[in-house]
């Protein structure tokens, strides 16, 4: 069929004049540039062939490439390549520039890549209060179905980016842009979610290769607040809403008159308890207060999660027979004690006692990894040799993961008692006067309460996506001091990978255990954590 045999409205030039360049597909725009076809192939078919052949590489096309296509002579090849070079030149001179979205047409021109896709795409444009594009994100590919478009996928990035407005675009590969029943359902659901999240859903646009349908008018009329492409400048993210309008939770500041006593150590001879260690920011002395608050605010809960557990004293406080405690910390030096005290529901104490005795009596006259780096500084040489030898032996004698956790915990707690420090390992005391000999004790574990518990060594933000709990106790680090710096030595001993150590403080590489909560990214990490709490 020749181009003039096509109905007028389907001819590229006519469509351009009628509807503007954004209404045209890539091959139609190219058809205008090429001008005419060849015998047996009209200009539209010729351009479609070129677009298909070069796909993503179109911008890098050369005259030589084009000359290989029957029907493209030197003049046409030069025309196309020059147009591309001209466009590139202008873009280079302009430099990076904000994409401003002030109309459905602006949104459509930013997503022209989905118009001729054979699968269904849902794309979201995240805009700031100036309507500049913050991010374009493909939300889903495939069939529009409830299970693949969860509002979380759309609004998660909106919260992260503090987007003021969003515009959604979705293609209909069939070419028919009439909204389906499902489209209408999805739009309504997204509008509802947007209202709750305080994110303005400005438009939902259905596109096909040649047509578009915008829900802008419907969205406008369904909204009490005027939704517009031209924003009012108010950054309506969820967190701003919480800050600027009536808060959902009224912060309660009250003076506590009650005097809280923390339990005296119930030390049994030869045993140690979970709280018998020095740990920055541990909440042992606040347990009564925390328990009162939890009981006041939460009625009848069954799963308590201590997601930044540290020593685990808070989780332990709520650890009862019919309760499930989830305890997590991303440091191995915290994970092993958590596992030993809160994660083991069956234990052969006799076996543990035998092994602890064996470790206490271990010969340790020779230097080893631990004594080489930490002897005569953090520990006496004798203690350091013993610590290294015991840790090595644990690898050999622990018969399973539970036993290993118990024995490592035993060692970590004993080490803390003979360390020549003020409680953390950023430095050691100049004078090595901590001369007490290392002695391992038995952990005072109550396995009966641990039947339902789960213990993790994960980044809290990853774990939150996998667990369910009734009470989430969140106690992240609250300054720039990394726990992996303060406890590098215990972490080294717990993980026992014997890495090289550096500097006066003999710290290993800790890049893999840096917490976002000690960095500028803390608010973002916190928002992500609360957003993903189930
Ligand atoms: C303030 S302390 C918790 C103290 C604890 N409530 C107690 O009473 O012992 C914070 C803990 O969070 C852990 N942590 C920091 N960032 C983490 C992350 N992204 N995921 C999991 N744990 C993290 C640290 O290792 C540290 O033990």
Describe it for me?
By secondary structure, this protein is α/β, with parallel strands linked by helices. Helices cover 39% and strands 10% of the residues. The chain is built from 21 helices and eleven strands. The strands form three sheets. Strands 2-1-3-4-5 form a five-stranded mixed sheet, with helices on both faces. A four-stranded parallel sheet has the order 10-8-7-11. Strands 6-9 form a two-stranded parallel ribbon. It is elongated. The relative contact order is 0.07. It binds S-adenosylmethionine (SAM).
Number of helices: 21
Strand line-up across the major sheet: 2-1-3-4-5
CATH topology of the domain at 104-244: Cytidine Deaminase, domain 2
| CATH H-tier superfamily of the domain at 104-244 | Cytidine Deaminase, domain 2
What's the main sheet like?
5 strands, mixed
Low-confidence stretches: 231-248
Q: What ligands are attached or bound here?
A: S-adenosylmethionine
Rg computed from alpha carbons, rounded to a whole number of angstroms:
33 Å
What is the CATH top level name of the domain at 104-244?
Alpha Beta
Helix content: 25-40%
Features:
534 residues, alpha/beta, DNA polymerase, domain 1, Cytidine Deaminase, domain 2, 4-stranded parallel β-sheet, 10% strand, binds S-adenosylmethionine
Layout of helices and strands, plus pairs?
Blueprint: H1 12-19, H2 26-34, H3 43-54, H4 63-67, H5 74-94, H6 104-110, E1 120-127, E2 133-142, H7 151-161, E3 165-171, H8 181-197, E4 200-207, E5 212-214, H9 216-222, H10 238-244, E6 271-272, H11 287-297, E7 303-306, H12 313-317, E8 324-328, H13 332-342, H14 349-360, H15 369-374, H16 381-397, H17 401-418, E9 442-443, E10 454-456, H18 460-463, E11 471-473, H19 483-486, H20 488-495, H21 522-531
Parallel strand pairs: 3-4, 6-9, 7-8, 7-11, 8-10
Antiparallel strand pairs: 1-2, 1-3, 4-5
Helix pairs in contact: 2-3, 13-17, 13-20, 16-17
This protein binds S-adenosylmethionine.
């Amino acid at each position: 069929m020749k181009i003039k045999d096509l109905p007028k409205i389907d001819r590229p030039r006519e469509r351009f004049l009628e509807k503007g360049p954004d209404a045209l597909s890539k091959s139609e725009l190219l058809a205008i540039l090429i001008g005419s076809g060849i015998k047996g192939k009209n200009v539209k078919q010729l351009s479609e062939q070129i677009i298909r052949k070069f796909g993503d590489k179109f911008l890098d096309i050369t005259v030589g490439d084009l000359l290989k296509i029957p029907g493209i002579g030197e003049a046409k090849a030069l025309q196309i390549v020059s147009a591309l070079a001209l466009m590139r030149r202008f873009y280079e001179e302009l430099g990076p520039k904000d994409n401003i979205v002030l109309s459905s047409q602006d949104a459509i021109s930013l997503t022209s890549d989905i118009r001729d896709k054979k699968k269904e795409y849902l794309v979201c444009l995240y805009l700031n209060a100036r309507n500049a594009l913050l991010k374009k994100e493909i939300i889903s590919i495939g069939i529009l179905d409830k299970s693949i478009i969860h509002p979380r996928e759309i609004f998660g990035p909106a919260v992260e980016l503090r987007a003021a407005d969003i515009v959604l675009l979705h293609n209909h590969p069939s070419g028919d842009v009439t909204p389906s029943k499902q489209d209408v359902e999805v739009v309504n659901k997204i509008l509802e979610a947007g209202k709750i999240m305080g994110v303005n859903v400005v438009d939902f646009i259905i596109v096909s290769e040649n047509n578009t349908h915008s829900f802008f008018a419907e969205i406008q009329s369904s909204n009490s607040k005027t939704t517009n492409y031209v924003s009012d400048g108010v950054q309506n993210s969820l967190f701003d809403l919480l800050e600027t309008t009536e808060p959902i939770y009224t912060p309660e500041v009250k003076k506590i008159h009650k005097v809280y006593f923390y339990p005296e150590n119930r030390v049994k001879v030869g045993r140690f308890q979970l709280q018998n260690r020095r740990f920055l920011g541990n909440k042992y002395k606040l347990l009564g207060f925390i328990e009162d608050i939890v009981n006041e605010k939460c009625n009848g809960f069954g799963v308590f999660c201590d997601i930044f557990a540290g020593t685990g004293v808070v989780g332990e406080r709520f650890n009862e027979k019919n309760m499930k405690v989830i305890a997590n910390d991303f440091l191995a030096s915290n994970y092993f004690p958590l596992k030993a005290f809160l994660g083991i529901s069956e234990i052969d104490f006799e076996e543990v006692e035998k092994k602890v005795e064996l470790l206490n009596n271990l010969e340790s006259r020779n230097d080893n990894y631990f004594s080489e780096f930490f002897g005569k500084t953090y520990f006496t040489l004798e203690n350091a040799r013993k610590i290294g030898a015991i840790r090595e032996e644990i690898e050999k004698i622990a018969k399973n993961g539970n036993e290993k956790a118990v024995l490592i915990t035993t060692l970590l707690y004993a080490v803390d008692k003979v360390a020549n420090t003020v409680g953390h390992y950023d430095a050691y005391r100049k004078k090595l006067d901590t001369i007490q000999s290392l002695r391992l004790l038995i952990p005072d574990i109550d396995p009966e309460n641990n039947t339902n518990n789960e213990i993790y060594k994960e980044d809290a933000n990853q774990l939150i996506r996998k667990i369910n709990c009734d009470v989430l106790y969140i106690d992240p680090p609250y300054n720039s001091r990394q726990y992996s710096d303060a406890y590098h030595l215990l972490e080294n001993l717990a993980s026992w990978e014997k890495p090289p150590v550096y500097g006066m403080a003999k710290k290993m590489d800790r890049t893999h255990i840096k917490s976002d909560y000690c960095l500028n990214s803390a608010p973002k990490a916190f928002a992500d954590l609360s957003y993903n709490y189930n």
